[in-house]
Amino acid sequence: MLFLQTKFSWLAAPLLWLAGAIVLSAVWATHTPEWINAHFNNNGASPVEAATIGFFFLQIAFFWLLPPVRPGRHRNFWLADFSLITLFAISRELDWHKLLITTSNLPGATHGTPFKLKYLLNADNPLADRLIVAACFGLALALCGGTLLYFLRRLLRGLAKLHPVCWSVAFLGGAALLSQLFDRLPAELRHSCGIHLSPSQHALTTVFEEGQELLLPLFIILAVVQAHLIYARPPSEDAPLACFDNL
Fold first, then answer.
1. DSSP state string for 101-157
2. Are residues 167 and 220 in contact, defined by beta-carbon separation less than 8 angstroms?
3. Neighbours of 73 (CB within 10 A)
4. Per-residue pLDDT at 184 exceeds 60
5. Which of 97, 113, 194, 242 has the fewest CB atoms nearer than 10 Å to its CB?
6. CA–CA separation, 200 vs 24, rounded Å?
7. Closest to 46 (Cα-Cα) out of 214, 225, 223
């Protein structure tokens, strides 16, 4: 905690990611593909995925116990906004959103998950189901995209100024992109290049896909603590974090 109260606390996010990458690499190197599948994947019922969901719920608690925004009339709005975005992430992890749609057996209808663009563009899918999917997409895009756009300018400025919260949020975004990359890599290599990964190579993509997802709530919890230390503390010109107050 003392380190997070210094002007070098922007290094916390890079160090967290590096530590995570080392641990994930060590796990892959010392365990069989079967063990990795059981503990990292297991069709969504693995210990790692359960831990990710648990950290997401803990993240919501951190929002309200250590508010990451300045006191004021807009604080509760942003806390509710962050909490709702987290609930979207939990719903995605638990596949709650798929309970809204029952896969149709109509000729030409899309099979698999309906929460993809091709489902919306396929006129053979039931119109009511496509409207539900479109509404979910619209709500998620408005909430997540609107929040990102509101803070984007400050995020970019903060990166240049080594603002701790901005660096943690940036690593959050990077980890999310890496997770998607490792998720799609085996299929893209197979379909586009005809390359079939070995069990060990596939286990590596699984470790880093699920491992990066596990890091997402940890980066957010880190950012919440950093923001609370900066914006919710008594004002003091001599405090090490005072230089970040004006962002």
1. -PPP-STTPPPS-S-SHHHHH-TTS-HHHHHHHHHHHHHHIIIIIHHHHHHHHHHHH
2. no
3. 6
4. yes
5. 194
6. 14
7. 214
How is residue 229 written in tokens? 């230390």
Determine the distance from the C-alpha atom of residue 127 to the mean position of all C-alpha atoms in its chain, rounded to a whole number.
31
**If you average pLDDT over every residue of the chain, what do you get?**
88
- Mind listing the pLDDT tens digit for each residue in 61-73? 999 999 998 888 8
- Distance between CA atoms of residues 191 and 240, nearest Å: 52
Residue with tokens 């080594």: 162
Per-residue confidence (pLDDT) for residue 72, from 0 to 100: 84
Q: What is the rounded radius of gyration, in angstroms, for the C-alpha atoms of the chain?
A: 21
Q: At what angle do helices 12-30 and 164-188 cross, to 10 degrees?
A: 30
Question: Hunting for tokens 């809204």 — which residue is that?
Answer: 100
96-127 per-position pLDDT tens digit: 877 777 766 666 666 767 777 777 777 777 88
